[in-house]
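RECORD TYPE: inverse folding
INPUT: C-alpha cells
STRUCTURE:
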C-alpha cells in the first residue's frame, strides 16, 4: 500500500500541465465590437439611473427632514448612499475587472 502511494506521488507532477498561456481573444467570435458597444451603453444607462436615484433620494430625504418624519428621512439617506455606491460600481466596473484579471494572472 505504501509503495503504491509513493509511486502515484512520483507521477503526479507529470500529470499537471505546464506553461499554459491563454489570453482573451478579440477576434474569436463575431460581434465582439457590437457587444462592447452594448456594454458601454448599459454602463451609461446605469450611471444615468444612478444620478436619477440620487436626485429622487435627496428629495425624499429633504421631505422627510422638513416634515419631521424620521423614517422617510432615513430611507432617503439610504437611497443616497445606495445610488452613490451604484454609480461607483458602474463607473469602476472596467477597472475592477482589469484589476482582478491581473490578480488572477499573477496567481
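DESIGNED SEQUENCE:
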Amino acid at each position: 500500500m505504501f509503495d503504491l502511494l509513493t509511486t502515484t506521488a512520483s507521477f503526479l507532477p507529470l500529470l499537471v500541465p505546464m506553461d499554459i498561456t491563454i489570453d482573451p481573444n478579440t477576434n474569436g467570435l463575431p460581434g465582439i465590437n457590437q457587444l462592447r458597444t452594448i456594454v458601454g451603453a448599459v454602463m451609461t444607462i446605469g450611471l444615468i439611473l444612478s444620478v436619477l436615484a440620487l436626485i429622487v433620494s435627496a428629495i425624499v430625504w429633504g421631505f422627510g427632514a422638513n416634515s419631521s418624519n424620521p423614517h422617510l428621512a432615513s430611507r432617503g439617506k439610504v437611497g443616497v448612499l445606495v445610488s452613490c455606491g451604484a454609480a461607483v460600481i458602474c463607473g469602476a466596473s472596467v477597472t475592477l475587472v482589469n484589476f482582478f484579471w491581473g490578480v488572477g494572472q499573477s496567481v
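NOTES: The CA atoms of residues 21 and 105 lie 10 Å apart.
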